[in-house]
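Technical annex, item 7. During the second reporting period the consortium partners agreed on a shared format for inverse folding records so that results from different sites could be compared directly. Each record opens with the tokenized structure and is followed by the designed sequence. A conforming record, contributed by the partner at site C, is shown below for reference.
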């Protein structure tokens, strides 16, 4: 197993205890922990350069603007694109809402279709439901195959020229399954639809070269890749960003404002209304610096091996059912499971007594839960700072849970 354990010392929170036990943090799909360098970069911005951006001629305003724009350059470079194609948003959810309201609302009409997959997070369902309600468009879904992947065999049946948007996840936050990016982006293009990639769980865990993916838009969040909450990014193909309307209006995003009409600042600023999250952008830049220094190839290799180890060890626990692909080449490190008839919240509570943090619930993917005919799962998710001993502690604690609930 590739060993990144020395990195743990960079994450102050990993040395704390929970309920008298060392913290075992297995909830990185919800949000990741932050290295000292990210905390320092944000603090240093507030201590030394705090000012508003793009507004003032004074030294602090210039420094703040430079820091903010250099963060954009770093984040853009991280996914292989130019800063002019990357707008900062509050996160994945806001980025998808920008596309829904800035593109969808203006290009959809009665009878048009938005094609989604059943493994989507609510962030990639609800904005489309809202826009469908306003335009008379309809949502259609692709189901899953037997291995929790998106079933694209029925694509021909749903794909026609009424499909205007194909929006799908690059990696499920529930099952860990990778999305069929190539198939769906090509399918969208074949009928003149746009493709939108929810990359909330993809960019943090893989090497993304966005220009090579073939999609029109991509959304991701800083807090799932070692950065702060409150910031994420919307990437778009240059022509798509030009044809997209701003979903929010206000200061910063304008060129000229008259009494009854306004013109917009150039892309990407036309999508950034109001004072942006400046310290958060600085932290996001520091996070991608950190990931780049580790090397995304190393992150991928490490996650694969710890996920394989986890799948292996979990399969030893009687009564445990995993909801997700067993083959690590088809998945990422979010592992959802049920343990007999123990409610996932009870599992999470018992694990917490041992200092182990997992998420339990519907994971903001209720249509998927309904499709899988389960109310909820417990989910362990891994990142570059996790070590195999933490998987062992998880398994030990699950055995304990079986005892408490009379499964032994
Ligand atoms: N999933 C989880 O525990 P935001 O909240 O905007 O940063 O990300 C939303 C989002 C969109 N798509 C996917 C695939 C996601 O996993 C998430 C966030 C977290 O699984 C919180 S619900």
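Designed sequence (site C submission):
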């Amino acid at each position: 197993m590739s060993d990144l354990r020395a990195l743990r010392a960079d994450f102050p929170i990993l040395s704390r205890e929970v309920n008298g036990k060392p913290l075992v943090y297995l909830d990185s799909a919800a949000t990741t922990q932050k290295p000292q360098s990210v905390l320092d970069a944000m603090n240093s911005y507030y201590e030394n350069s705090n000012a508003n951006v793009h507004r003032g001629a004074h030294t602090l305003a210039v420094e703040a603007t430079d820091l903010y724009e250099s963060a954009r350059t770093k984040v853009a470079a991280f996914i292989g694109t130019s800063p002019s194609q990357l707008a900062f948003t509050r996160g994945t959810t806001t980025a998808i809402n920008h596309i829904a309201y800035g593109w969808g609302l203006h290009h959809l009409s009665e009878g048009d279709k938005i094609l989604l997959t059943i493994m989507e997070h609510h962030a990639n369902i609800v904005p489309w439901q809202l826009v469908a309600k306003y335009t008379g468009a309809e949502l259609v879904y692709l189901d899953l195959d037997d291995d929790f992947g998106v079933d694209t065999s029925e694509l021909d049946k749903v794909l026609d020229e009424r499909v205007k948007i194909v929006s799908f996840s690059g990696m499920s936050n529930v099952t860990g399954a990778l999305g069929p990016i190539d198939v769906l982006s090509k399918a969208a293009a074949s009928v003149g639809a746009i493709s939108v990639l929810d990359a909330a769980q993809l960019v943090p865990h893989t090497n993304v070269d966005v220009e090579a993916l073939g999609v029109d838009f991509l959304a991701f969040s800083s807090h799932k890749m070692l950065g702060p909450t409150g910031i994420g990014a919307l990437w778009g193909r240059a022509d798509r960003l030009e044809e997209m309307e701003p979903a929010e209006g206000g200061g910063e995003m304008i060129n000229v404002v008259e009494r009854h009409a306004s013109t917009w600042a150039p892309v990407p600023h036309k999508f950034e209304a109001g004072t942006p999250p400046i310290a958060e952008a600085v932290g996001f830049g520091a996070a991608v610096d950190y990931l780049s220094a580790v090397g995304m190839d190393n992150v991928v290799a490490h996650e694969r091996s710890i996920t394989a180890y986890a799948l292996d060890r979990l399969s030893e626990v009687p009564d445990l059912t995993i909801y997700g692909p067993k083959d690590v080449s088809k998945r990422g490190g979010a592992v959802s499971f049920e343990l007999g008839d123990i409610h996932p919240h009870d599992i999470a509570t018992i694990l917490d007594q041992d200092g182990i943090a997992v998420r339990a619930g519907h994971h903001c993917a209720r249509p998927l839960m309904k499709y899988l005919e389960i109310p909820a799962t417990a989910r362990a998710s891994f990142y570059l700072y996790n070590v195999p001993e933490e998987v062992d502690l998880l398994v030990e604690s699950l055995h304990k849970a079986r005892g408490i609930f009379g499964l032994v």
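The chain has a mean pLDDT of 97. The CA atoms of residues 49 and 60 lie 5 Å apart. All partners now use this format for quarterly exchanges.
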